[in-house]
Design brief:
The complex is a heterodimer.
Chain A (H helix, E strand, L loop, with lengths): L1 H14 L1 H11 L15 E4 L4 E3 L8 E5 L5 H7 L8 H6 L4 E6 L10 H10 L6 E3 L4 H6 L3 E2 L2 E4 L5 E5 L16 H11 L13 E2 L5
Parallel strand pairs in A: 3-4, 4-5
Antiparallel strand pairs in A: 1-2, 1-5, 3-7, 6-9, 7-8
Chain B lengths: L3 H9 L6 E10 L2 E10 L4 E8 L6 E5 L4 E3 L8 E5 L2 E7 L1 E10 L7 E11 L3 E11 L7 H8 L4 E2 L6 E5 L2 E6 L3 E6 L3 E3 L9 E3 L13 E11 L6 E8 L2 E8 L5 E2 L2
Parallel strand pairs in B: 11-19
Antiparallel strand pairs in B: 1-2, 2-8, 3-7, 4-9, 5-8, 6-7, 9-10, 12-13, 12-20, 13-17, 14-18, 15-17, 16-17, 18-19
The chains are: A alpha+beta, B mainly beta.
Chain lengths: 209, 259
């Protein structure tokens, strides 16, 4: 009796192996983000405690912006004349979703619900600001700086990672290029992103050790 | 009297800059060398031309009199800073950057306006800038500072400095030294994760006991991405018999030895 039950269980395990393997794959730490590959899934809480998942936006172009409200580069970009002021609202008209992610650890610069809620008001931010204080999603995407930008196309593929533009703090190196605008425009027209990988500049993401 | 007063004064006073800029000059015929000396507050650092995982390259914008042109900003080899799993390259305490100015026939007169911009960081960062005006006809004399800096600039590597091969994305750099460090330029992203590229002692023949004095140091790294536009270069710092030397390596874009 006991042994038959065990055999039945084994059989069930074999029959459901495919499914179980798929589940295990979902529960293991997902593979690090790679350009041209499916963007790794994540779920984080926004400043109001709501869970936000990348899969909530399947079928849409998504921008991920690594964020630290007290980093001078972020202050400049979201400041009154900065290139990210009102940007998420502008691209939302074209159906693009914008998610800011703060991977700063407790005690580090720009961390905490209070500070980020205040920053939302200061910078007129209308998009979700997601809290990743253990840095899991930041490390998954290889986010190094604030701001560090990633674009995921409507098919869920990571198509851009890098700098917002070639103009740290508004000073372009050569003719001004906004890599994010280029990537979003290429996504909208269904063409390959012309520059998919650039070197991000800015403050380091304030990961915990 | 109250502890509040110094605090209020502190808040009311703009923070002094973490970095100060002094400009030195030396002339040799139609060539002028400017030296940009950055003095950095203890515990803070500024960045090399490749800042690494984060940061911003230090830059000097020069507004020159008619007829003068400026060469690229020349950086001494940097040092590495590691924090929170990220690696950056730059300088603490003090660094001097150089730029060579040339002219065909313009007189050595007029004012150069130097606008220095840098990001200075410890656990947090502050962007700073400074303007300095230099009269070409009355250069601030510190030729010694410029000469000392010139000696620190990485010279092009020779065959004795390193042997480089590439197979696919794998790059191998061999050098005979007691210790070696590599600082890749911004065109080159190495797949070393958040660690630094590390040289290891290589036995001269497989299975042979490693003998420090007879073995080369080998660095084997994977190229994650390489920019198509700029040359792939790296500063190699070696120490041999207590002498440290920086050289500039040109790295191959595809299979084969570099030379």
């Amino acid at each position: 009796m006991t042994s038959r039950a065990a055999i039945t269980l084994c059989l069930a395990a074999v029959l459901f192996a495919g499914c179980a393997a798929a589940d295990a794959a979902n529960q293991d730490p997902p593979a690090n983000a790679e350009l041209g590959a499916p963007a790794p899934a994540f779920t984080l809480k926004d400043l109001d405690g709501n869970s936000v998942s990348l899969t909530d936006y399947a079928g849409k172009t998504v921008v991920l912006e690594w964020f630290n409200p007290d980093c001078p580069f972020v202050k400049y970009a979201h400041g009154a004349k900065g290139p990210l002021r009102g940007k998420s609202a502008a691209v939302a008209e074209g159906g693009v979703v914008w998610l800011a992610i703060n991977s700063g650890a407790p005690g580090k610069q720009g961390h905490g619900l209070e500070r980020n809620k205040k920053a939302r008001t200061e910078y007129g931010i209308t998009h979700p600001v997601l809290i990743d204080e253990d840095g899991t999603v930041g490390r998954l995407y290889g986010a190094r700086t604030t701001p560090h930008l990633f674009v995921i196309d409507a098919s869920g593929t990571l198509v851009y990672r890098g700098a917002l533009d070639n103009a740290p703090l508004g000073t372009p190196k050569g003719a001004p290029v906004n890599y994010l605008d280029e990537a979003l425009s290429d996504c909208a027209s269904g063409t390959a992103v012309r520059t998919s990988d650039t070197k991000a500049y800015g403050c380091s993401v304030k990961y915990g050790s | 009297m109250t502890p509040l007063l110094p605090l209020l004064l502190l808040l009311a006073t703009p923070a002094p800059p973490k970095v100060t800029l002094a400009v030195h000059g030396a002339a040799d015929g139609d060539q002028v060398t400017l030296g940009f000396e950055l003095t950095i507050t203890d515990g803070w650092h500024v960045y090399w031309e490749n800042p690494g995982d984060s940061g911003m390259p230090t830059s000097m914008q020069l507004d020159l009199p008619d007829g003068w042109t400026a060469g690229p900003l020349l950086f001494p080899g940097p040092r590495a800073f590691q924090a929170d799993g990220l690696v950056t390259y730059g300088y603490a305490d003090r660094v001097v950057l150089l730029s060579e100015l040339t002219t065909k026939d313009a007189p050595r007169a007029g004012v150069v306006t130097v606008t220095g911009r840098w990001l200075v960081c410890k656990d947090v960062c502050e962007p700073e800038s400074a303007d300095v005006r230099v009269d070409l006809s009355a250069l601030p004399a510190r030729a010694d500072v410029i000469e000392a800096t010139r000696a620190l600039l990485p010279a092009p590597a020779t065959a004795e400095d390193a042997r480089i091969t590439r197979a696919g994305d794998t790059l191998e750099i061999r050098t005979r030294a007691d210790a070696a460090e590599l600082f890749p330029n911004a065109a080159l992203d190495l797949a070393t994760g958040s660690a630094r590229p590390r040289f290891a002692r290589e036995p001269t023949t497989p299975g042979e006991e490693i003998v420090k004095s007879s073995a080369d140091l080998l660095l084997r790294v994977t190229v994650r991405t390489q920019s198509s536009g700029e040359p792939l270069q790296a500063v190699l710092r070696t120490t041999r018999g207590g002498v440290t030397k920086d050289v500039l390596l040109e790295l191959p874009r595809s299979d084969g030895p570099s030379d």
